[in-house]
Amino acid sequence: MAPPPGSDEPGEAEALSDISAAPGPRAAADACPTVRTSLPGDALAPGAARRFIRAVLADWAGLGPSAAGQVPPISVEFGSEAAVVVNELVTNAVVHAGTTVELLCRLESGGATEPAALVIEVCDHHPSRVVRGAPRRAREDLTAYESGRGLHIVAALAECWGVTYRTGRKTVWARLRVDAGEPSERRRGHRDEVLQRGLHAAGILAPAPCRAPRGPDRDWIHRGALSFLAEASDLLAGQFDEDLIAALAGQLLVPRLADWCAIWLDEEAGGPLLAPRLARVWHAKEAAMEPLRAAVEKEPLRLPAAARGGPVPMPWPAAAELGTDGAALAYRLVAGGRDVGALLIGRDGVTHIPDEITGLIEDFVRRVALAIGAARKYTRQATISRVLQRGLLPSRVAEIPGIDSAFVYEPSNEALAGGDFYDVFPGADGRWCFVLGDVQGSGPEAAVVTGLARPWLRLLAREGYAVHEVLNRLNQLLVDDATEAAGAAVHLATAGPAAEADGPQSRFLSLLYGELVPDADGGSVRCTLASAGHPLPLLLRPDGSVRAAAVPQILLGVIEGARYESESLDLTSGDTLLCVTDGVTERRSGPRLFDDADGLAVVLAGCAGLPAAAVAGRIKQAVYEFGDTPPADDLALLVLRIGAGR
């Protein structure tokens, strides 16, 4: 196969030369509007790709600033078909590669003999996986081929499509003629071919059971079936609860494609000894719901090992409310090569379910399984992160005599261990230490640094080191650790490209560290603190005045041998010290940041006289109200108020 139209790089491996006809000539590159984006290799990618292509086409059609009349009119029907093609190409890449996906869209204006065309390219980074739908002759030499329905929808809608293999990546592309008016005879012919291959499903999207008479408008049927799959993908991909996905799947199927359905989910860690769990039953008639549940629970669904997503005929459940005859089919739900559950559907009053319905359900089942797999992966990651976070944060912070304290800690993503951490603990010689830190990034890499920094801080403080000495030694420890990690990465790189790609991780850390020493009479507190690349602490006096309580210094872990300095000040009754991470100061609302024009100091000035918990609550509320969306970064703050006691 030739490279995708407009590609500047020739193929580096022999491709599947008979998938489609080679693309025709295109207009000069500078006359072809081109946009591209990157998408994550997960279940959210197809929905994002559809929204992207719709926005791009609207922009090119003159609704945005870029087109300026350079392109022909684009019909609504064409936009829908382009979204379906993008959905199928991206879904194919996510299911069979699982890597980051690059999406490119280019509009070729055509010429006197060539009509305008939209070229869509989807590139993944798993070139050893063969595209589903490849012809038998090409498949015989490629052992990684996986059988399936493939890209039949893309083949039906596109003028031509193909695959290009290069070192380290694979690109699947499709070319669609821009149709500004009525569908051409050629496009109508394409649709007839698709219907003959199994997409003819009368009444599939009707809000009543599938009993519509045969022979409705075929264009409507075609668009309806494709829209059903596209919108189902969008709806299912946004869910991270497998039971909710099962419930949504049942409501999508009934009554559109079946009269009833039941969904079982395999226990993830159960193995062969644990039976699948009946997660959901759904019937078009509410009165038949419980009888259906009782019938399917009495006879657990058992599928042969050979069933891998295709339909398996099953006996009709024995329940008077379900009638005495009908057709039932079961599908195994498979995600990432693993069984995640099974689906049973039924239609009463028929001896078999038409192939066009079973084929459409097979595509739908694949999407349900993908969503369940993504939900389970998210749940596993969130559970691990919560356990890890509990181990990295103090289970209980120390209570300093004569000082009222309050904390706020909210990670931006529960599925990832946050990069922010805090601690309050007793040091040497009657000193009390407090820490607020922010590791670069989040997830396991950030957790590694937090796991190193917290115990080091406690150890150095209890050994009696002064504040600036603690930072000096912690900085050197981080630099040494990063050097060792880099050396290990270089050693592992000799094992192959995969080890080299992981590489050493940065050990940068912003930190606010301080010590409190109460006077013998309890009337004041001597505070010594230092800020290493961290938002500066703010001191609120009882009269409402606010000032910074430290000077900025370089991040920890950046420069070997860096020397840090500390500052000391006396805090008296009613003084409040506010320490925050950049999740507070850099909270965004459009181009503005929360701390622009000293926004944090302004809010703090209005907190004079409030206890620590009230100050923390007011700052948190102001941060949330600053933007229309939830904070995108971890949120952590520590409030210390002198002379209030507990």
Categorize the overall geometry.
Answer: elongated
Calculate the mean pLDDT score and round it.
Answer: 76
How many strands, which pairing sense, and closed or not: the largest β-sheet? 5 strands, antiparallel
Structural class based on helices, strands and sheet pairing: alpha+beta
Give the end-to-end Cα distance, rounded to a whole number of Å.
Answer: 75 Å
Helix percentage range: 25-40%
Radius of gyration: 31 Å
**How are the strands ordered across the major sheet?**
1-2-3-5-4
Strand content: 15-25%
Count all strands and give the number: 22
Separate helix tally: 15
Overview of the molecule:
With 646 residues, this protein is α+β, with helices and mostly antiparallel strands. Helix content is 35%, strand content 23%. The chain has helices at 45-63, 76-96, 136-139, 152-157, 185-199, 218-237, 242-253, 289-298, 355-392, 444-462, 467-493, 497-502, 582-585, 599-605, 612-626, and strands at 34-39, 101-108, 117-124, 160-166, 169-177, 260-265, 277-283, 312-314, 326-335, 338-348, 403-410, 420-426, 432-439, 509-518, 524-532, 538-540, 546-548, 567-572, 576-580, 588-589, 592-593, 635-642. A 5-stranded antiparallel beta sheet has the order 1-2-3-5-4. Strands 7-6-10-9-8 form a 5-stranded antiparallel beta sheet, with helices on both faces. The longest helix has 38 residues, at 355-392. It starts with 33 loop residues before the first strand and ends with a strand.
